[in-house]
Amino acid sequence: MKFSKVTLIFVAVTCLGFTLSPVSLQTNKNQPFDSTKLPLDCFQLSAEAEKETFRLGEPVRINVKFTNVTDHLCKLILSGVYDYKITVKDESGAIRPKTEYLEKLLKFGPSSYRGIGVDPGESYVDIFTMNSLYDMTTPGSYSITFKRIIYLEPSFKKKVELTSTVKVKIIGAN
Predict the structure, then answer these.
(1) Which residues are bridge partners to 36 per DSSP?
(2) Where does residue 64 rank: exposed (0-12), middle (13-18), buried (19+ CB within 10 A)?
(3) pTM, whole model, 2 decimals?
(4) Longest distance between any two alpha carbons in the chain, whole Å
(5) Which of 61, 94, 99, 157 has its CA 20 to 30 A from that of 29?
(6) Signed CA dihedral, 168, 159, 153, 157: sign only
(7) pLDDT of residue 23
(8) pLDDT (tens place) for every residue of the chain, 174 residues total
(9) For residues 101 and 132, is the Cβ–Cβ distance under 8 A?
(10) What is the DSSP string of the chain?
(11) Which domains are seen in the chain, by residue range?
């Protein structure tokens, strides 16, 4: 059983590597992509709440946006919540625990990886319902920090860490 999972992951990552080949990158149809002109940072990361204040029990949705700040196509490898180191702190600075749901997700690992291209000036958005991932059952203010390692093209061996923090307030249900 473990052998088949490892084999499947290896095949998926190998196939993904072929589809993410920098040879396929182009700035336009007539001009080949020049990997020597890559900036250190392809993306700017920003986290934004749907609104500032939520009622207790209401979904606390956060949009985590990657904006391509270059003049060429940049690529992201995605596997959902596994891509991030997320820290949720209450107003006293205490780190909030993961929910049982998130613990189960993390236990089994990602079911797939995929690569996407983000055009210059365009964005890719991940949406998280934070109170399904972390214990936010007490009214108060919360600070949510998203950290994401981005592996840089063309070899994907160099990396940069992007960080963004958003604050939300949860009030009583009534």
Answers:
(1) none
(2) buried
(3) 0.72
(4) 60
(5) 157
(6) negative
(7) 29
(8) 444 443 333 333 333 333 333 323 333 334 444 444 444 578 999 999 999 999 999 999 999 999 999 999 988 888 777 889 999 999 999 999 999 999 998 888 777 788 889 999 999 999 999 999 999 999 999 999 999 988 776 666 777 889 999 999 999 977
(9) yes
(10) -HHHHHHHHHHHHHHHHHHT-GGG-BSSSSSB--GGG--S--EEEEEEES-SEEETTS--EEEEEEEE-SSS-EEEEE-GGGGEEEEEEETTSPBPPBPHHHHHHHHH--S--EEEEE-TT-EEEEEEEHHHHB---SSEEEEEEEEEEEEPTTTS-SEEEEEEEEEEEEE---
(11) 39-171 (2.60.40.2360)
What 3-state DSSP class applies to 79?
A: coil
Residue that is written with structure tokens 């939300």 in the block? 168
- What is the structure's pLDDT at 131? 96
First to last CA, the chain: 50
* Bond before 59 cis per omega within 30 degrees: no
- Total residue count of the chain as it appears in this document: 174
Q: Is residue 161 packed enough to be buried (19+ CB in 10 Å), middle (13-18) or exposed (0-12)? A: exposed
Question: Nearest Cα to 43, choosing from 114, 121, 116?
Answer: 121
User: The tokens 């180191």 sit on which residue?
Assistant: 85
C-alpha radius of gyration, the chain, whole number? 19
C-alpha to C-alpha distance for 90 and 30, rounded to whole angstroms: 53
